[in-house]
Design brief:
By secondary structure, the chain is α+β, with helices and mostly antiparallel strands. It has four helices and eight strands.
């Protein structure tokens, strides 16, 4: 049985990417504003992101879903169809834990419109109701205030600081852990 991994909110559709999303996906990446802060990629060189490359990416995404490794969702405006951003839910451990991690990013020209909160809340509901996770964590850089506020706004609670948790910016960095359980 194929699980329906699409969810709609008042303004958004959150679903796995399809090959037909290429033009929309590319256009919205090209529309990004210059970087607004350290954790915003802003405009990036998309010259290597050909349609063939994107189709292979979508196939890898679908394979990860089949393996229950990672669920990567496009976030789309329900009215215009525009690609707004991406949410991923990674399986950390199943068995007696049912434990996952959520990541989220919106194109910076869609910020400050409430899309982030709406999309993340819907993705959490999907994680608990359709993917059977019990616990979802967000791993957030110590100074990423926008991400911290978003996690709090959807009911995630601060748990701890994980020291030297992820290698980025050419060093091992600490992360805040926010979490929410299915209850």
């Amino acid at each position: 049985m194929q699980l329906n991994l699409s969810v709609e909110t008042e303004r958004l559709i959150i679903r796995p990417f399809e090959k037909e999303d290429y033009s929309n996906w590319l256009h919205q990446h090209e529309e990004r504003l210059p970087s607004q802060h350290k954790y915003d990629q802003g405009k990036t060189d998309m010259s290597e992101c050909t349609e063939v490359w994107f189709h292979q990416l979508v196939e890898r995404h679908h394979d990860m879903i089949k393996e229950d490794d990672c669920y990567i969702f496009g976030v789309f405006d329900k009215e215009s169809g525009e690609h707004i951003g991406t949410i991923d839910i990674s399986t950390l451990l199943r068995y007696d834990f049912q434990w996952g991690r959520i990541g989220y990013t919106l194109h910076n020209h869609f910020w400050r419109k409430g899309f982030g909160k709406e999309a993340v809340q819907a993705a959490l509901d999907l994680a608990f109701e359709k993917l059977d996770f019990h616990r979802i964590e967000a791993h957030i850089n110590l100074d990423n205030d926008a991400s911290i506020q978003l996690a709090k706004s959807v009911g995630m609670a601060f748990e701890c600081v994980r020291k030297g948790f992820i290698y980025e910016f050419e060093e091992w960095t600490d992360n805040l852990v926010y979490f929410i359980n299915a209850e």
